Amino acid sequence: MTKYIAPSILAADFANLQRDIEMVNNSKADWFHIDVMDGVFVPNISFGMPVISAIKKHATKTMDVHLMIVDPDRYIEDFKKVGADILTVHYEACTHLHRTIQAIKAAGMKAGVSLNPHTPVAVLEDVIKDIDVVLIMSVNPGFGGQSFIENTYKKVQQLKALIEFSEAETLIEVDGGVTNQNIEQLLEAGVDAFVAGSFVFKSENPSETINELKSLISF
Ligand SMILES: O=C(CO)[C@@H](O)[C@H](O)COP(=O)(O)O
Ligand SMILES: [Fe+2]
């Protein structure tokens, strides 16, 4: 099965955003991971529609938009308009998750659902067949550069078992603290898509770092 590397733009140099986007375009990365934070669901504010539109103008790869916002239903159409291909909402931020998933798909995007580190995968049992991507948070959402939570491996295995049992075709994505030290173990646990922010953008040669991560998950 295809495996994906998704550099997180949150760790890019916003004063040189076009340069960093071109770097990702020219690397072996598969997706742009784009973190939207509202200062309510998480204790941090990142960026919104104008910045995503600007990214979309230059990006040549899948736009994987991770919403860390309350009541995301309000903006589904807007995120489609600015170029999201995958739109991921948090389980913890949705009162009517099934409805939200259907609305994302009806707007023409892939539907993602993210789980905070404390949320068990079992909460997705009744909607797993409707979800295109489950994004397991391997740090508490809100900031880049945090350390990877080791319990994530077990969670990925549990999610993989749930997907297989349900005969779903859902992809498993992991987000937070991903490096060349844990990516192979994550792959082994069943992860399909790997988000990496600081490890890529704070490295000496981000393009080579992306390609190194990609080579560790490609056979
Ligand atoms: O959603 C988030 C953080 O809330 C992530 O996408 C981070 O941007 C990942 O950054 P690193 O942990 O890889 O530095
Ligand atoms: Fe993210």
UniProtKB/TrEMBL annotation:
<feature type="binding site">
    <location>
        <position position="8"/>
    </location>
    <ligand>
        <name>substrate</name>
    </ligand>
</feature>
<keyword id="KW-0119">Carbohydrate metabolism</keyword>
<protein>
    <recommendedName>
        <fullName>Ribulose-phosphate 3-epimerase</fullName>
        <ecNumber>5.1.3.1</ecNumber>
    </recommendedName>
</protein>
<keyword id="KW-0413">Isomerase</keyword>
<feature type="binding site">
    <location>
        <begin position="175"/>
        <end position="177"/>
    </location>
    <ligand>
        <name>substrate</name>
    </ligand>
</feature>
<feature type="binding site">
    <location>
        <position position="66"/>
    </location>
    <ligand>
        <name>substrate</name>
    </ligand>
</feature>
<dbReference type="Pfam" id="PF00834">
    <property type="entry name" value="Ribul_P_3_epim"/>
</dbReference>
<keyword id="KW-0479">Metal-binding</keyword>
<dbReference type="GO" id="GO:0004750">
    <property type="term" value="F:D-ribulose-phosphate 3-epimerase activity"/>
</dbReference>
<comment type="similarity">
    <text>Belongs to the ribulose-phosphate 3-epimerase family.</text>
</comment>
<feature type="active site" description="Proton acceptor">
    <location>
        <position position="35"/>
    </location>
</feature>
<comment type="pathway">
    <text>Carbohydrate degradation.</text>
</comment>
<dbReference type="InterPro" id="IPR013785">
    <property type="entry name" value="Aldolase_TIM"/>
</dbReference>
<feature type="binding site">
    <location>
        <begin position="197"/>
        <end position="198"/>
    </location>
    <ligand>
        <name>substrate</name>
    </ligand>
</feature>
<feature type="active site" description="Proton donor">
    <location>
        <position position="175"/>
    </location>
</feature>
<feature type="binding site">
    <location>
        <begin position="142"/>
        <end position="145"/>
    </location>
    <ligand>
        <name>substrate</name>
    </ligand>
</feature>
<feature type="binding site">
    <location>
        <position position="175"/>
    </location>
    <ligand>
        <name>a divalent metal cation</name>
    </ligand>
</feature>
<feature type="binding site">
    <location>
        <position position="33"/>
    </location>
    <ligand>
        <name>a divalent metal cation</name>
    </ligand>
</feature>
<feature type="binding site">
    <location>
        <position position="35"/>
    </location>
    <ligand>
        <name>a divalent metal cation</name>
    </ligand>
</feature>
<dbReference type="InterPro" id="IPR000056">
    <property type="entry name" value="Ribul_P_3_epim-like"/>
</dbReference>
<comment type="function">
    <text>Catalyzes the reversible epimerization of D-ribulose 5-phosphate to D-xylulose 5-phosphate.</text>
</comment>
<feature type="binding site">
    <location>
        <position position="66"/>
    </location>
    <ligand>
        <name>a divalent metal cation</name>
    </ligand>
</feature>
<dbReference type="InterPro" id="IPR011060">
    <property type="entry name" value="RibuloseP-bd_barrel"/>
</dbReference>
<dbReference type="InterPro" id="IPR026019">
    <property type="entry name" value="Ribul_P_3_epim"/>
</dbReference>
